[in-house]
Amino acid sequence: MATPNKLYPNKDEILTRFDAGSSVKELCQEYDVTEASMRSFLKKNERELRGRTDLKQCNELSIAEAAYIAGLIDGDGCLTATVGKSRNSVVVNYKLIVSMCDQPLIEWLREITNVGTITGQNRINQPNWRHLHRYECSGQQLNSMLEKVLPYLKLKRPQALLLQEIGSLKKNKLGWGVDRNIERQIEISQLIQKMNFRGVRQDEAL
Questions:
Q1: How would you write the pLDDT of the chain (206 residues) with one tens digit per residue?
Q2: How far is CA 68 from CA 61, 75, 109, in A?
Q3: Backbone angles phi, psi at 22, to 5 degrees
Q4: Rounded to an integer, what distance in angstroms lies between the CA atom of residue 186 and that of residue 189?
Q5: Strand positions, DSSP E, 53-180
Q6: Secondary-structure percent of the chain, ordered helix, strand, coil, rounded to 5
Q7: pTM for this model (two decimals)
Q8: Rounded to the nearest 10 degrees, how much is the dihedral formed by the CA atoms of 188, 31, 176, 194?
Q9: Cα distances (Å, whole numbers) of residue 53 to 49, 110, 118
């Protein structure tokens, strides 16, 4: 398990994700650290801890905006789920990744939704290639986005529905904070990975 000191190499990334709306629990699962350690780390970096009602949700979108974002996800996005461990427990994390060289479009996606984070990648081994920009959105924030763009998704609609099922298994009557039926979550993760594998038809994966 990570210690608070081991969080510091990822300091900028963790703070960026927290500022963008990721919950303490999501960060704990991602970086394999206790909630007390993560809260201490955030406080030392002058972050005000928020309650669950303050977690960011996707902005309201017009039909045109939701349809355009769905097109981005269908064309350049990857909806994925992975199985990991956190404090001796198995957890399933899920996210949307959109990678492209068009920085203004990536920034528009972050601005119009008000959820997710942006990172850059210098292609050191390919000096002639353009700089790659990567948008990521996960957990509760992703669920709030999928609710708005799902009617317009085509190619990635099956994956989106499966991710929504994972999200429903992480909710209780009061909101988020549970992990029910982890076996089904793992099964969904494996299905999505198979569906995302090049050359595999969706009907074959299912």
A1: 445 567 888 888 888 777 766 778 778 877 888 888 888 888 888 887 765 544 678 999 999 999 999 999 999 999 999 998 766 678 888 999 999 988 999 999 999 999 988 887 655 565 666 678 899 998 888 999 999 999 999 999 999 999 999 988 887 544 555 667 889 999 999 999 999 986 555 555 55
A2: 10, 11, 10
A3: -65, 140
A4: 5
A5: 77-86, 89-100, 117-121, 132-138, 171-172, 175-176
A6: 50, 20, 30
A7: 0.71
A8: -10
A9: 12, 21, 24
What interhelical angle do 182-196 and 157-168 show, nearest 10? 160
Structure tokens at 67: 């349809």
Q: Where are the beta strands (DSSP E) in 28-185?
A: 77-86, 89-100, 117-121, 132-138, 171-172, 175-176
Residue 171's DSSP bridge partners are: 176
Tokens of 160: 């989106």
> How many whole angstroms from its chain centre is CA 175?
18
Report which of 171, 176, 170, 114 is spatially closest to residue 145, judged by C-alpha positions: 114
How many residues does the structure list for the chain? 206
For residue 52, give both structure tokens.
């669950």
Q: How crowded is the C-beta side of 47, counted as CA atoms within 13 Å?
A: 23
Residue 70 CA neighbour count, 13 Å, CB half: 22
Helices 35-44 and 24-31: crossing angle in degrees, nearest 10, is: 110
CA distance 49 to 121: 30
In Å, how far are 72, 89, 150 from 147, measured between CA atoms? 16, 28, 6
